[in-house]
């Protein structure tokens, strides 16, 4: 895809499809709509009065061969109410238009962005376009190519020189971020027979080489040497051996402390001996979405050249039932030395995260943020709509909330109280790995808290946000890549925590 930037009027853009972003309107007031109405012999008046297009979210309409325009068609896409206009209005509109046949059958297009002053709108528009058109075709044998978009060039047109500079830098940035999110979607969508722990490690190594950051992979023996009893207990039931992936990106000054990102990388979660219900078990190929977000965050940070030092930690394993699997009732010893009574082998994520959070301490981190498809209880907390965040540092939680305002990946804080900590105590070991049915999302965090050092920590539970059940403007049905934009936005505005 080639991006071009120009200062041009809608009329002079010589492309197949001219895309116009339009807020709701009852009368034709905007200059460019008036001109288009005249050029199409009242075309806008017609689609407005028929109700076909009024600028609402989700609406698209095309006007073919407007006279006096160099473009073959003008595509109008609705932004919703002018009063409520925000970056996500552009993300959604661009996502909607990304699958519109008039556009996908064109080779060249222009997005006319006129005189919008808010440069975040530009970034959101390219993000929405690239995210909305995502399809995973790798596993289709035929009958697919015709659905692919032919679009090869987009010209971003604005009104003046100042905006031209802004649009270029924001579109470049947005494209890199969307790319990162698409990497998460691709990895999350890839089935577990194609994405084992060792294959995920290979993918990480290749990306690290390509984008010039460091990648080190601990195999089962090295994991054993690290005494990661939690990760080993989960991996024991599988014929695929685990990998512990360590990524390092150094874009900051040498003395700067690292920010550590931790992602759950269960490449398939059958539940183990506490086997899951068969319904939707296939979706557990996506139980490595947190790890994918971490990998993509390092790739994106490297591509954006963020002036930070980052560590990415991805504990990866399968959780399978077998004769060698960990049993309910077993007691294991974690890297930290704490003992855990396994009540339910399906509560495996917290075991691998706990060892990893403990390991994170050795970097003397500025902050540690973990992201994981951790608890099914998330469905009853915020549903598919957003992620719970928990942690020990209000400032860090606040920053995540702030980042989510722009990225529109919603997060909300949940507390960890002593009553929840109590749930995770064992009669005969230090901790249990499951506190039963109540407060599942919080209880998992109360477990993790035992492995946190004297540093700021935030935990993001993305269970269910990692999957879109129906399809939304820029989120086709399936893996969403939730969390990538959020972490990149957080890191892009990073200042030392007080
Ligand atoms: N990976 C699951 C959580 C999950 C469930 C993510 C559904 C996305 C969709 C996790 O490993 C798990 O099984 N958690 C259990 C813990 C319980 C046994 C304490 C859960 O939440 O049911
Ligand atoms: Mn599980
Ligand atoms: Zn899991």
Features:
single chain, binds ligand BES, 16 helices, binds zinc ion, alpha/beta, binds manganese (II) ion, 9-stranded mixed beta sheet, 498 residues
Computed CA radius of gyration, to the nearest angstrom: 24 Å
Helix/strand class: alpha/beta
pLDDT under 50 segments (min length 5)?
none
Amino-to-carboxy terminus distance = 42 Å
> Roughly what is the average pLDDT, rounded to an integer?
97
* Estimated share of beta-strand residues: 15-25%
List of distinct ligands in this structure: ligand BES, manganese (II) ion, zinc ion
Helices, by number, come to 16
Quaternary structure type: single chain
Shape: elongated
Helix content: 25-40%
The count of DSSP E runs of length 2 or more, i.e. the number of strands, is 20
The main sheet comes to: 9 strands, mixed
């Amino acid at each position: 895809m080639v991006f071009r930037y120009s200062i041009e009027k809608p009329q002079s853009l010589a492309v197949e499809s001219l895309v116009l972003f339009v807020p709701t309107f009852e009368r034709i007031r905007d200059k460019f709509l008036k001109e288009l109405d005249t050029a199409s012999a009242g075309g806008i008046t017609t689609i407005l009065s028929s109700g076909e297009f009024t600028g609402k979210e989700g609406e698209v309409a095309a006007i073919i061969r407007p006279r006096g325009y160099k473009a073959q068609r003008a595509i109008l896409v609705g932004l919703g109410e002018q009063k409520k206009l925000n970056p996500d209005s552009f993300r959604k509109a661009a996502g909607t238009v990304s699958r519109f046949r008039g556009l996908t059958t064109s080779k060249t297009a222009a997005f006319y962005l006129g005189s919008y002053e808010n440069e975040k709108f530009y970034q959101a528009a390219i993000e929405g376009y690239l995210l909305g058109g995502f399809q995973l075709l790798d596993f289709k044998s035929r009958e697919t190519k015709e659905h692919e978009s032919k679009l090869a060039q987009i010209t971003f047109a604005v009104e003046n020189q100042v905006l031209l500079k802004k649009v270029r830098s924001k579109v470049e940035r947005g494209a890199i971020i969307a790319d990162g999110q698409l990497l998460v979607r691709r990895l999350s969508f890839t089935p577990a027979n194609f994405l084992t722990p060792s294959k995920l490690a290979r993918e990480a190594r290749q990306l690290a080489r390509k984008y010039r950051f460091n990648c080190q992979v601990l195999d089962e023996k090295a994991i054993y040497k690290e005494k990661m009893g939690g990760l080993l207990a989960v991996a024991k039931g599988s014929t695929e051996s685990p990998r512990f992936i360590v990524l390092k990106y150094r874009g900051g000054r040498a003395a700067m402390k690292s920010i550590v990102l931790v992602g759950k990388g269960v490449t398939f979660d059958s539940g183990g001996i506490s086997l899951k219900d068969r319904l939707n078990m296939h979706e557990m190929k996506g139980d490595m979405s947190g790890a994918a977000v971490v990998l993509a965050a390092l790739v994106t940070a490297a591509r954006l050249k963020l002036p930070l030092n980052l560590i990415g930690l991805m504990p990866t394993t399968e959780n399978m039932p077998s004769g060698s699997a960990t049993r309910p009732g077993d007691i294991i010893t974690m890297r930290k030395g704490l003992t855990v009574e396994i009540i339910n082998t399906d509560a495996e994520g917290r075991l691998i995260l706990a060892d990893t959070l403990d390991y994170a301490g050795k970097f003397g981190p500025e902050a540690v943020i973990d992201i994981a498809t951790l608890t099914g209880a998330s469905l009853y907390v915020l549903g598919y709509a957003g992620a719970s965040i928990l942690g020990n540092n209000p400032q860090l939680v606040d920053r995540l909330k702030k980042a989510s305002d722009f990225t529109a990946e919603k997060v909300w804080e949940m507390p960890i109280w002593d009553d929840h900590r109590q749930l995770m105590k064992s009669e005969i070991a230090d901790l249990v790995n499951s506190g039963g049915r109540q407060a599942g999302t919080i209880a998992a965090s109360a477990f993790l808290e035992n492995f946190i050092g004297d540093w700021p920590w935030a935990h993001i539970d993305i269970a269910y946000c990692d999957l879109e059940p129906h399809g939304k403007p820029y989120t086709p049905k399936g893996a969403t890549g939730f969390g990538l934009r959020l972490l990149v936005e957080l890191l892009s505005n990073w200042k030392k925590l007080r």
